[in-house]
Amino acid sequence: MSSKSLHILERAVYRGPHLYGSRPMVRIQVDLGELEAWPSDRLPGFNSALLSTLPSLDGHGCSYREPGGFVRRLEIGTWFGHVVEHVALELQTLAGLKASRGKTRSVRGRPGVYNVLFDYADEASGLAAGRLAFQICHALLPPELQGLDGLDLVTAPTTIPEDRFSAINTVDEAVQLLKEIARRSAFGPTTQALVDAARRRRIPVTRLNSQSLVQLGWGSRQRRLRASVTDRTGLVASELAGDKAQAKALLQEIGCPVAKGVVVTTADEALSASRRLTRPLVAKPLDGNHGRGVTTGVTTDDALVAAFGLAAAHSRRVIVEEELPGRDHRILVVDGQVVAVAERVPAQVIGDGVSSVAALVDVVNRDPRRGAGHENSLTRIRLDDAAAHDILERQGLSTESVPSVGQVVVLRTTANLSSGGTAIDRTDTIHPDNAAIARRAALAVGLDVAGIDMLAPDISRPVRETGGGIVEINAAPGLRMHMDPSEGTPRDVAEPILRMIYPPGSRARIPILAVTGTNGKSTVGRMLAHIFSRQGQTVGLTNTSGVYIGDEQISAADASGPKSARMVLRDPTVDIAVLECARGGILREGLAFDRCDVGAVLNVQADHLGLKGVDTLGDLARVKSVVVEAVGRRGVSVLNGDDPLTIAMARHAGGRVCWFSMRGGEDCPGFILKHIAGGGMAALYDPVTGELAVHDREARHLVCRADAIPAAMGGHAAFNVANALAASAMAVAAGLSPDVVGAELATFASTYEQNPGRLNVRDVGGIRIIMDYAHNPDGLRALGRLTQALKTEGGRSIAMLSVPGDRRDQEIIEMGEIGAEHFDQLVFRETPDNRGRPGGDVIRLLTQGARSAGCASERITGIRKEEEAVAACLQMARPGDLVILTPTRIESVWRQVQVFEPRPSPPSPPPPAFILEPPHG
């Protein structure tokens, strides 16, 4: 790779709110190399070549927000990444995909490195658009500046072979490839209509497979769809609708007009049965769909034998029935109500006296509304099957025949849109009696969404008078004929289905409580889960220990990212979600939800700095702020009023702001007092009275006293008082009363069972062992202060400490300094994988920090393996000592603690003998 090359460094797909905004976006990070010195105004011929290649870029407003704005930016001079952003958007637009916004940002401290971000309609086509945009723009560069590496990284998730991408030379080819990729993942028109209707109502939509299975809503309020089949569509009803003979018999028994017919299994049976029926006849598969294998207008025995063979290719059993008079109509019944009616016209062409049938079909197929399969509102007519040729033969024609002027040439006997038919809206003209027949038919079969096929000479007159009747009932009816008819008024038939699934007043979302921060996330989450589960709700909880549904841990791993959150939101038993949102997941793919009801940022302290572009506390604060920026308009953002970085987040936080502060007495910050006086919400701890209280709309509500919370250890564990305060604010914001919250906090002890790895205590043989995941400087200081408060006279504190190897040297050194300040004996260890550092390096830096703080060598022990370090601490301990363990493998360390039994102390030496001296004299 030369220094001139463009290098694709990484890519990300954001599905929820993220560091750069709230819209789903693709991010591609690129190093421009030498191109950093070549903005567009300096590149010879580049701008003109670009606009010649993609003239529609002239319509992009860019920062000027008016057509031609992007062209102005090109002329003034803009960088290559920004150009790629616009090209990626335009390629998607030309492919018929919705994508309109993007942004390109330089990466601070890395000259020439940019994050290119843009909207996407679906992930695969969005990534492909980015790949093709780089490829197209790169080809327009002067040869001496060309060189591009890493494109395969962008397109990794697609199923298109690499050589297909590399063979693209024109914009048209790129657009066609994008269309192909989009088709592979696109919903059918019915599913897409329902998904669009759900999104208009802000109902969450989750795709569950590569076809049309969709989850609407979250948790216990979720519903599922597959096209127009809902999760309430009964199996019996679906099977009955599929058995056309049984369905027709049922309708006949309740007085619905139906065609007379029989079910046969051989051609001879069909001929025999036809003697008892009046011709013309219809032959169709018993359990077919989309008009496949259906023949109408059968008048001769030979035609009947041929029609039987066509139907038998699709079903073992075939219906032979009298053909009812009239035109074909589809009546859509939802929840027992007729919502739309369409007259379906079979595929046909009209002669002009010049063109052949095949040429006339080609003209019809040029209609932009026609596409392959169900991708467009109409389907292209096909002449390449036996059915089409048979129908033409019956009319004395072939594909090469030239029909006379005005001659109607029928190309299908059925009127299904899937075979090239058209639709005319008749919703406003159906006679009430015909609508009533359709309603009764749907209710009799038991379908919540039903397509009733009715033949009627005139749908505006009762079929009982004109002749006609029901020929079929369909489960999973298609919607596109009603949404986009060839003639007449389009009908929004998706909305009645959504209204049936979620009636007015019902909710599709479960409450989401999202919590982030450097320290305390897991404890606050567990406190909330404890509080709400004791109110009878099934809580879905995610944290660094795993995923929990109710009392069951369903996944044991670091589950503080969006993948685990989605697991909770998909679970049908979950009533409320409590989600820990860590830095890594937010950076990787954003949040798992579009908005939350309550979001909290507990604090921002030095941790994970120097990773993924997060180099300063300000960077870290911007990442964590994503959580409160995602709070809904009616939600609550809970922020730490004692932390300057979280205070600054209030400007961008969603919903109402609720402050929490450990300075709730005379030292309460003035801005919080002003906030309360204005009717705002705050949760405060008064260190004088020891009370936790929530203030809202100028009223004060006592939650409890700190010494009533077992996890606060009599108020000594100040960090757990703060955690309880944040949990109280979030629970009250979610609708619980302060007194209920206080009562439940009084039952929350920080035991291993309730809060593993967070201030778990075991007393054995006069030794107190505390296990706590203090993994950063601020957390370790808080644990050190608690240790000093708990030490007994004459007792020692023995601490096992470590730091993940991906932390910066200065953080590791600082942890050693803090250890020296707060603990008597230090056992430094390594983490199991050391995250890229050489063995012994973490211990070396911790030791360096401790010694710089004045710690004597005899107070320090270095042991690489965690299990051996734990054993060494326990073996050192004597009655009266405190052993502090900060684990990586929480479960295995706790097992060691559980089985530990102190060794008997060695016998004390005998006291010195007292010699009584004889009296003098």
From TrEMBL:
<dbReference type="GO" id="GO:0071160">
    <property type="term" value="F:cyanophycin synthetase activity (L-aspartate-adding)"/>
</dbReference>
<dbReference type="InterPro" id="IPR004101">
    <property type="entry name" value="Mur_ligase_C"/>
</dbReference>
<dbReference type="InterPro" id="IPR011810">
    <property type="entry name" value="Cya_phycin_syn"/>
</dbReference>
<keyword id="KW-0547">Nucleotide-binding</keyword>
<dbReference type="InterPro" id="IPR036615">
    <property type="entry name" value="Mur_ligase_C_dom_sf"/>
</dbReference>
<dbReference type="GO" id="GO:0005524">
    <property type="term" value="F:ATP binding"/>
</dbReference>
<dbReference type="Pfam" id="PF02875">
    <property type="entry name" value="Mur_ligase_C"/>
</dbReference>
<dbReference type="InterPro" id="IPR013221">
    <property type="entry name" value="Mur_ligase_cen"/>
</dbReference>
<comment type="similarity">
    <text>In the C-terminal section; belongs to the MurCDEF family.</text>
</comment>
<dbReference type="GO" id="GO:0046872">
    <property type="term" value="F:metal ion binding"/>
</dbReference>
<dbReference type="InterPro" id="IPR011761">
    <property type="entry name" value="ATP-grasp"/>
</dbReference>
<dbReference type="InterPro" id="IPR044019">
    <property type="entry name" value="Cyanophycin_syn_N"/>
</dbReference>
<dbReference type="Pfam" id="PF02786">
    <property type="entry name" value="CPSase_L_D2"/>
</dbReference>
<feature type="domain" description="ATP-grasp">
    <location>
        <begin position="248"/>
        <end position="502"/>
    </location>
</feature>
<dbReference type="Pfam" id="PF18921">
    <property type="entry name" value="Cyanophycin_syn"/>
</dbReference>
<comment type="subunit">
    <text>Homodimer.</text>
</comment>
<dbReference type="Pfam" id="PF08245">
    <property type="entry name" value="Mur_ligase_M"/>
</dbReference>
<dbReference type="InterPro" id="IPR036565">
    <property type="entry name" value="Mur-like_cat_sf"/>
</dbReference>
<protein>
    <recommendedName>
        <fullName>Cyanophycin synthetase</fullName>
        <ecNumber>6.3.2.29</ecNumber>
        <ecNumber>6.3.2.30</ecNumber>
    </recommendedName>
</protein>
<dbReference type="GO" id="GO:0071161">
    <property type="term" value="F:cyanophycin synthetase activity (L-arginine-adding)"/>
</dbReference>
<keyword id="KW-0436">Ligase</keyword>
<feature type="compositionally biased region" description="Pro residues">
    <location>
        <begin position="903"/>
        <end position="913"/>
    </location>
</feature>
<dbReference type="InterPro" id="IPR005479">
    <property type="entry name" value="CPAse_ATP-bd"/>
</dbReference>
<keyword id="KW-0067">ATP-binding</keyword>
<comment type="function">
    <text>Catalyzes the ATP-dependent polymerization of arginine and aspartate to multi-L-arginyl-poly-L-aspartic acid (cyanophycin; a water-insoluble reserve polymer).</text>
</comment>
<feature type="region of interest" description="Disordered">
    <location>
        <begin position="901"/>
        <end position="921"/>
    </location>
</feature>
